[in-house]
Input
Amino acid sequence: MSDSKQETANKLPPSLHFEQRGAVGILRLSRPHKRNALDDATIGGIEKFFAAVPDDIKSVVIHGEGEHFCAGLDLSELSERDIAAGIAHSRAWHRAFERIEFGRVPALAALHGAVVGGGLELAAACHIRVAERSAYYALPEGSRGIFLGGGGSVRLPRLIGTSRVIDMMLTGRTYGADEGASLGLSHYVVEPGAGLTTAIELAERIAGNAPMTNFAAMHVLPRNAEQDRASGLLMEALMSAIAQGDPEAKRRLRDFLEKRTPKTVHR
Ligand code: 1HE
Output
C-alpha cells in the first residue's frame, strides 16, 4: 500500500475497512457483531474518508460485512443524549452523508439483508444502489420512538415520494429488493452473493468516464431537480460548455469520430 493509502486506512476506525482495486475504493462497514450499526466513530470515519478520497480513486463502493448491510443508528449510544447533543449528532451524520453525495467521486452501495433506518439513509446518499435479493428496506424509527436524522427525510421523499416514506414510517412497511427497484431504491437487483462484484464492475465502468462528466452528473443533476427551470437550464448550458471544453472530452470525441471507441448499443 502506498503512503497516502496507508494514511487513509490509518485514519479509519476499526469499524471501517478500506481497500483499493485499481481505480475503485472499497469501504466496508465492519461491525458484523452489531449488524454494522453506525456509531459515532463510524460516522466520523465515513466523513473523513469521503473528505479526502485518494486522488487515484475514481469511484467508491460501500458494502457491509456479515448478514446485513446496516442496522442503522447504533441504538446503544442514544439513551444519554440531550436535545443539544441530539442535534449535533444528526448534523454530524448530515456532514458525513453530504460528503458522500456531493463528494469528488461517485459512490455505489452494495446492499444485502437489512438496509434499515440510518442504513437506508446511508444507501440513499450513494449514487447507485445494487441490491442482492436478500436486501430489504425499512424505517423502524417509529417503533423506536425516534425520527430520521441522517438526511433521510430530505433524500428519501425525493427518491420514492413523500407518501411512501410516511407509510414506511407510520406502518413499518418494508420493501424488498425487487419492489425497491420498481420504486427507485435499488438500481440493480442481483442474486445473493453477487452484490459486491456487480457494484465493483459498475464502479470500474464509472471510473472509466471522463471525471468532468461524473462530476456534472453528481453535482448538477440533483441541484437542477431542486431549482427553478430557468436556472436549471442555465446551469446545464454552463456545465455542458465546461465539460466539452475539457481536453479529455476533446480526446474522447476524436476517438469516436475516428472510430476508435465502441458504439452506444443496448446490452
Ligand atoms: C444493534 C443494532 C442497532 C443490532 N443498534 N445494536 N435500527 C433498528 O431499529 C434495527 C435494529 N436491529 C434489528 O432489527 C436486527 O438486529 C436486524 C434485523 C438488523 C438483524 O437481526 P439479527 O437477528 O441478525 O441480529 P440481532 O440478534 O438482532 O443483533 C445482533 C446484535 O447486534 C445484538 O447485540 P448483542 O449484544 O445482543 O449480540 C443487537 O442488539 C445488535 N444490534 N442492531 C445497536 N441498530 C441518524 S438517525 C437513524 C435512526 C435509525 O437508524 S433508527 C433504526 C435503528
Summary: Residues 98 and 125 are 7 Å apart (CA to CA).
